[in-house]
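# step 3/5: fold
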Amino acid sequence: GDHRDLHSFPTRRSSDLDLDGITLDSLKRQYKKLVKKYHPDVNSGDKTCEEKFKRVAVAYKELSARLSGK
């Protein structure tokens, strides 16, 4: 699957990302995968994972809004 959207988000602005070919469904699938990977409960308080978890949440919110045209 295409995961360039959420993985590259922490270092790039959402308005700079090319979202061609990315659907809300594919974004949601990637989001769920990354949330499971970086969730604080799974990573015993690892601060790096906690920061990535927060970034993924922000990225998802902004990118899903862009994809839905809001």
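# step 4/5: annotate
The chain has a mean pLDDT of 83.
# step 5/5: archive (pending)
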